[in-house]
Amino acid sequence: MTVTYTARVANARFGGFSKLLLLWRGSIYKLLWRELLCFLGLYMALSAAYRFVLTEEQKRYFEKLVIYCDQYASLIPVSFVLGFYVTLVVHRWWNQYLCMPLPDALMCVVAGTVHGRDERGRLYRRTLMRYAGLSAVLILRSVSTAVFKRFPTIDHVVEAGFMTREERKKFENLNSSYNKYWVPCVWFSNLAAQARREGRIRDNSALKLLLEELTVFRGKCGMLFHYDWISVPLVYTQVVTIAVYSYFLACLIGRQFLDPAQGYQGHNLDLCVPIFTLLQFFFYAGWLKVAEQLINPFGEDDDDFETNFLIDRNFQVSMLAVDEMYDDLAMLEKDLYWDAAEARAPYTAATAFLLQQPSFQGSTFDITLAKEDMQFQRLDGVDAPLGEAHGDFLQRLLPVGAGMAAGGLLGRRLSLLRRKNSGVSETSTAASCACAGAPDGAAPECGCGDPLLDTGLREPELEFPPGPELPIPGPAEPFTTVPMPAPRGPAPPWLPSPIGEEEESLA
User: In sequence order, what DSSP letters do the residues of 182-247 get, joined into one string?
Assistant: First the structure.
């Protein structure tokens, strides 16, 4: 039976695992004590022969052999090979448990889709779940020694009630040299289709859902068969076993204590029992024993899967769900918190302290900032509307070069861009200028002109075809300009056109 100790380590405390070290059932001591005694006995026998049996000449030769074995034993990569192997085995062990065929999802779908409170409806539901349980029994008796000992023949399966005698005849008359654990799943599908034809399953969507759950159940049964068929490659298991055993065979000689009077380096102390060598054997050989126990969890070791228990549990629960609990509902009542604005279950005195703890709002919820750090900053560093600041910021980004001063194309683009961003037409801009009243033909001397075109190298204004003028939403404020910095060279070719359609007209 599986050794469960999770309740003993529910809370971390000082020496929390110390009580687990005294457990015998399922422990490493139970697995390893024979190998440990064998290793210690061989070591003590060699040590006694060195001290009391060998001659002086033979002792000198044995001492050279000890130094040689101790020097080259470290070349065996036992920790690397063994660690990777155990990791692979543990991962495979847990995946095999996830493939155990549990009928919980299937029985809920059967109870919700196969209708009928009469005896025939009950027969449909119970038979469907019995077929699912039969498929699980057939595959488990194929991979688990404990289940096979419980059901060694098909007659035992029939006598246990998982299969009728008529079904046994059909099962045995089906000629196939392969494992036939899948036959009850086919019977399940055929019976579900018959229930659909009789109206016990009311629509095709319910039948589809039922068969999908059956497919998941059958897939787990198939994966158990494949895990039993495809093992960890034998060569890998052999390499790990040979590495561990050869390493400790070398340690039997290489870890012997030599006579300190001979002056060998590292042999200044003479003990009878190699404490740290025994610990090393305990760890490495115990690691190998872990892999040996977990590589096939369907045996009868202490920590192997409780397959017979799962068969009993699954069969009983599935029959209760589809039979006694079918259409079994309690009277609908208003819950205890029907009129409560904030529903919260009560706490006992042992857990009342949890009410004082605030709920988690997010990892940045408790971060505080200074008041000045929470102020929004303008791109140009001045207090101005975002539209004007955006236009001035673009104007400062674009460099002014000699080519722009001579041609004026880029300056014209910036002027149009500023007017476009401000939402004011050229007419409204001219009307709002302080020099708008200048005589016809006289050039204004104020700063209302385009600052990019008032550089002394003004080019003639381009004439645009007449078109509809944009409506003026209201009185426009005076359009202020910011002087551009000194010319710094031609505009970079990677700058995009800022105004789109106006660029085409200027070109």
Answer: THHHHHHHHHHHHHHHTTSS-SHHHHHHHHHHHHHHHHHHHHHHHHHHSPSPHHHHHHHHHHHHHH
C-alpha to C-alpha distances, 340 to 239, 333, 335, 344, nearest whole angstrom: 67, 15, 10, 9
In angstroms, what CA-CA distances link 302 with 4, 10, 272, 308?
Answer: 10, 22, 35, 14
Average pLDDT over residues 246-275: 91
Does position 464 have pLDDT exceeding 90, yes or no?
Answer: no
pLDDT higher than threshold 90 for residue 125: yes
Report yes or no: 311 and 136 within 8 Å, Cβ to Cβ.
Answer: yes
Whole-prediction pTM: 0.70
Residue 453 carries which side chain, given as an amino acid letter?
A: L
Distance CA 43, CA 27 (A): 25
Q: State the CB neighbour count (10 A cutoff) for residue 34.
A: 9
Confidence band (pLDDT; 50, 70, 90) for 118?
A: very high
Instruction: Give the 3-state secondary structure of residue 411.
Output: helix
- Using alpha carbons, select from 100, 463, 497 the residue that is nearest to residue 298: 100
* Paired tokens of 282: 């305990």
- Any idea which residue has 């077929």 for tokens? 131
Number of C-beta neighbours around residue 400 at 10 A: 23
Q: Mapping DSSP to helix (H, G, I), strand (E, B) and coil, where does residue 363 land?
A: coil
219-255: pLDDT as tens digits: 999 999 999 999 999 999 999 999 999 999 999 999 9
**Helix axes of 275-294 and 78-98: crossing angle, nearest 10 degrees:** 30
The length of the chain, given as a count of residues = 507
SS3 content of the chain, % helix, strand, coil (to 5): 55, 0, 45
